[in-house]
Structure formats: structure tokens, C-alpha cells
Amino acid sequence: MAPSRTEIEAESWAFALAIYARPGVAPACLTLQNEAGVDVMLLLMASFAAVRLRILLSQDEIAALDEACRPWRERIVWPLRTIRSELKMGPKPAPNGDTEQFRSKVKAVELAAEKLQNQLLAECLPLRPPGINAVTSEQLRVVLDRLVSLFREKRDEKPAVNLSPPIATIVEAAMQDTS
Hints:
Layout: H1 5-21, H2 25-36, H3 40-51, H4 59-89, H5 97-124, H6 137-154, H7 164-175
């Protein structure tokens, strides 16, 4: 029996938190975000769909998911991230103990916004019967390459770093979660 959208939402959020906490994954995600403009929540949902649901998203499905969450990401998540980042170095009175407490609150709100984005992605995820076999590392790599390519095409400049190592880190971490 296929999982409900509510189950997918809860399971994908737990998956995202677990994968992101694994060694090397946070820096890998941030590299993809900073160098190619990748939406990390979408990347983690695509990984979840492959590993847990055995659904390999096509380029068109990835683009549709991106379009579904783009307004939320651009108008809510990114501004919160910008505020949180700005509080690290200033403007005055930042950085200090009081502004660090405020920054922690903004970080919690940003995480809540990402959870709402995860909910939106779960609602929009194309569901179909899973493949018969478990997804391989190579198959997940293809899906993540598609996703990174979609975001890279939106940028005019080429990434300053090779994006293969961070993708490999995420693939390795996600494949540890096969079940």
C-alpha cells in the first residue's frame, strides 16, 4: 500500500533532518546551494523519493516541483536565510550575545519555513508505483545531477568548484538510509 501524503510529509522531513546531520552533508548541500543555486529542500526530497519511495524523478518532474515551491523559497525562505546570515557579522549591534540569541530565533523560524516547504513538496510529489528493485547509487546520482543541472542553467556563471564531490557525499549519505 502506498504511503499517504501525510506519511510522506513526516517521513521526508525526518529523512531530510537525518541526512543533513550526517558528516559532510551540510557543507555539501551548502556548496551546491552557493555554487549552483540548488534548493536544498528539493534536493533532499528528490533523494527521499528515490531512496524511500523508489521514485526516480524526471527532469520535468524536478522542474515542476521547483516551480511549485519557488515562490515560497524566494519570498520566505531566502529572506529569512539572508537575515540569519547578516546577523553573523553585522550590522551593529550585531554580532553580540543579544543578537546571537535573536539569530537563533531567526534560525528556528527559517527551519520552520523549510518544514513548510517540505510539506508543499510532499503534496506536489508525483506518486506512482515504486520500481521493483531498490534504487542504486548510480540512479540516485543521475537524479541529483538532473536537479543540479536545472539550477545551474538558471545561473549565468559557472560554479567556481567541481560539484561532483558534494553530490557524491549526498548520494553516499542517502544510500545509507535505504530500507
